[in-house]
Amino acid sequence: MGKKILLFISFFSFLFVQTQFSYAAGRISGKVTDAVTGEALIGANIIIVGTSLGTASDVEGKYIISSVPEGKHIIKVSYIGYEPKETEVEIKDNQHIQINFELDVVSVAAQEVVITAQASGQNEAINKQLSSENIVNVVSSARIQELPDANAAESIGRLPGISLVRTGGQATQVVIRGLSPEYNQITINGVPVPSNESGDRRSIDMRMISSSSLGSIEVYKTNTPDMDAAVLGGTVNLGIRKASKNLSDKPLGFADMPAISFQAQGGYTDLTNEYNNYKLDLSFEKRYLDNRFGVFVQGIIQQQNLTSNRLDANYTQIARTINPDSLALTSLNLYFYPREEKRYNGTLTFDYDLENGNIALMNMLSQSKSNTNYYQQQYGLERGGNNVHYYVNESPKTINLISNILSYNQKTPFVDIDATLSHSYSENIYPDSWTITFEQLSVGTNKIDDKLPPVEIARLAHQLVDKEGLELRNVETSNSFLRQRDIRASIDFSKDINISDLLSVKLKTGAMYLYTKRNYDYNYGYGYVWFGEIGKRIVEAFPWLEEYGIKPETNERIFLSPFLDPDINVGTFLNGNYTFDNTVNLDYMRRIKDIVVDYGLNLDAAPTGGAGAWVPNMHSSQAWDYSGNEKRSAGYIMGTFRIGQFLSIMTGVRYQNLTTSYRANRFYNASASNPYPNELPHIDTTVTKTHGYWLPAVNIKFDPLPWLSLRGAYTNTLAYPNFQAIVPWIDVYTGSVRWNNVNLKPIRSENFDVQVSVYNNEIGLFSLGGFLKRIDDFVFYYSSYIIDPTQYEGLHNVPQYPNLNVKGYSLDAYYNNPNTVEVWGIEGEWQTHFWYLPSPLDGLVLNINYTHAFSEAKYPYTIVGNTGFPYFRPTYTDTTYTDRLINQPDDIVNVSLGWDYKDFSILFSMIYQSRIFNSTNYWNALRTDKDKYLRWDVVAKQRLPWYNIEVFLNLNNLNGANDTYLMRGNNFKDTDESYGLRAELGFRVNFR
Fold this sequence. Notes:
By secondary structure, the protein is mainly β.
């Protein structure tokens, strides 16, 4: 049914726009540039005075106004930061006239004003925001290229309504308007990036995308029917660079030589006092055939030290019924993460200018190879085991991303066409992850007061550690391979129709089809290390252990101290407040792991009774596997009605459909002993589901005065459940069930947005807006109990298990929240350039924004009780509790103050975030919040007088801010992670 509707919409709309009831076919086109530099001015506003006709210049400064009636007209061009310009033109029927505009920088009388790098970037962002039909925030190409950030996520981290998720101190994902990364969409040139998250969420790890490969970044806060509707918070569109048209004919004095840009930088990590960061960036670009054919090639090699120190604490309620807010610490974990990441990026873009059109092929390859090793010290207290564990982990990881995008756009006398065909592929590979455990039992930590702060507990617990008592205990291994491939095609038709001098309409229609294939394979093994045969092999591999008294004839355990490596540098651990001495040699542990695994793989069967040797776990190695595909299709029709130059109303509807078909394994005896090398009995299950929705939208833009713009939007959008929530998993254990609800529905959001903007050359841009989202069927995960098994697909009437009875079992599952979730907030920003002040203050550039967001969600909870005497039968009472959405901060403040003076630029920036809700629980005391966060950064650049050389310095996290999470019950630290200060010093050479 959905496909027929899509075909009908597209066919009918195409015929409609072909109907030429407009009496005019005149066309005006041209380019808007800076009168001095010749640089394209993006987002310039071009109007025909006294009519409803107008447009904005594109990324090359080009514009086209179609359906211009016969007669004399005045064309006016305006661009914040420049003096407006007008010219008169006469149009005859079917005539095509080309008019270029060169704008002069706004200036004070008798004072020459030069648009500096930061001011240019700000002007571009302001004008693109003002010209857009959507509520959008922009990071301009000038800002990206002039003041480089570590990655694309860092580049947008200071826009209104944006907070960042960080790993190793580096931004990896964006949270928009308090909605988690999986509820936002990341696109490259309008094409969605395939998910590369190992946790099976639909979010994107953005560190794969280098900011220096980008020509623009737009964050759309509202949707129109021609955009993919699978987004709750916003859409981040990353525009890949093309070969510039403002290039010298003879770079370095040689004809036909491409323009070359080279950047090299080295970096320092304060936490470990190391200088092992570097980045090399080389690009070539050239245009041929009278500037019609462009080639852009870029290669990037980067290494980053992302080392961090971390504390994790686990708490429990001491007396839930008497004092639910009183907490005790059960275990304390200290981590040292010596992360190192190497990243390789390559971009190859071809584009060819057609008459009133362009065809382009963009190819991007990105690879990240990292070792996220960690060393861990765990102290178990009275309620957590009275023990100490030292862990060593190695987790090499590779992420690959490939995108190929073929785009075609053409303006014809009949209809404008925009078509895209793309292929995207992503991989997330953990080839060999392992953990080795050393254990010390009955250590005496049960005598420590578990209500003390973590720092005091850690000090007391470490005094009880005995390196000779920490014994080699077990080996745990895993590997996984996640891959996703997307094939996407889309086509859009649009037509400008001039009905009268004061009324014109732009009709647009199109369709999209996306095919996704996704596979996940996971393998797991676990076992103990008894001395026996394995111990003998270890001693044979390390004969020097006998010097420590570890001999096959006399020992039953191998203890920790012989394997310590004094050369491992853990830095100043968590500001020097904790002692960390787990410095086990990684090479030794890797060799022990290989010995243990080799022994287990040669066993004929899994050991029975007691603690067995390492073997693959046949349940875990199949229970998490899945494969399948998704088919997403959509069609839309929309019209933008322009009434004079003051009012624009866009209205339309989109129909979007998703069909999912996933295969997974269902285990009804998951508690059974490991049957290695045989498979554990299971049912291979495939489930196919289809969901389709009509999504209406209305956007209004009203500009009553030359300096005032009012906007409003009503839209409907979706979010599809994460992959791990919809695959048909079932695990039935003794007394508990892990069950996936294959009937989960997409999340639906009804969105209301308003914004008022005041702007001119002196003010810059001041905007204030508000938003409200009413979200239905929000997906959440919680534990309850099975009262009626017939309510759960796959837990009753299973032919292979006729005696299955799970009544009363605990249940972990995903559900659609029956209660509506509301998210609302306000966003304000001010962008200005103080060009009118006397030198050198005229080089000041200010950006400041503030966001306040609030959400209210009801979370379900099942209270377990009993009937009391005499039978004490269990009772289950369903209730709810209320809190914010996870990852949602109340307040975000971003301030950046830049200054350009001649060839010197510097930018000071500050980001502040209030507490962010982090994890939910029925008991308020057990909920966690990320503590308020304040961070300072500085970026400076100096251009030298030789060969266009620039040197730059980035100082990140000047104040050494930590990521700290607090327990609500006692305000103690649940997590505390330190990254320290990071610095990069580099240079860039441009031969253009």
